[in-house]
Specification:
mainly alpha, two-stranded antiparallel sheet, 2 strands, about 140 residues
C-alpha cells in the first residue's frame, strides 16, 4: 500500500513540474506537447480509484435525520447559539445583528414593543432557501 499509488502519484507530480524549470527570471513557455502530457498526467492522478480493501466497519446504527424545513423555534434556537464577535460570512450578517432581530421579535422586557419585520423576513428567507435550495 505504501509503495503503490502514493509513490506513483508523487512521481507523476514530479513529471508534471519538469516543464516549469526557470531560465533566469523567465519561465519556459510550455509547448502544446508539454500541455498535452501535463493534461494526461493530471487526469491520471485524479482518476477515481476504488478501494481494494474491506470498507471500514461502522459501529453506529443508521438513523433517520429530520431534514424538513426548520420551524421558527428551531431557527431562533440556532441564532441564540451563534457566537458573538465572529466575522460575518458572505452575507455580511453578523451574529449580533441576527440576535438583535431575534430579540426585537421576542423582547425580553414587557415594556419593549415587538418589531418582527426583520426577523420574519429572515425566517422566511431561511425556510425558502431550505425548501428550494436557492434564492429566487
Amino acid at each position: 500500500m505504501f509503495g503503490g499509488p502514493g509513490l506513483a502519484g508523487s512521481l507523476n507530480q514530479a513529471k508534471c513540474c519538469n516543464w516549469m524549470k526557470h531560465r533566469g527570471d523567465e519561465a519556459f513557455r510550455p509547448s502544446f506537447e508539454d500541455m498535452t502530457k501535463l493534461t494526461d498526467l493530471m487526469e491520471d492522478m485524479h482518476q477515481r480509484v476504488d478501494p481494494q480493501e474491506e470498507p471500514i466497519p461502522t459501529l453506529i446504527a443508521p438513523y433517520e435525520i429530520d431534514d424538513s424545513v426548520p420551524t421558527e423555534d428551531e431557527i431562533t434556537l440556532a441564532v441564540k447559539r451563534l457566537k458573538s464577535g465572529k466575522s460575518p460570512g458572505a452575507s455580511k450578517m453578523t451574529a449580533a445583528l441576527l440576535k438583535k432581530w431575534c430579540h426585537q421579535e421576542h423582547p425580553l422586557k414587557e415594556e419593549d414593543i415587538p418589531q418582527p419585520e426583520a426577523w420574519d423576513k429572515l425566517v422566511e428567507l431561511v425556510q425558502h432557501t431550505w425548501e428550494h435550495t436557492e434564492l429566487s
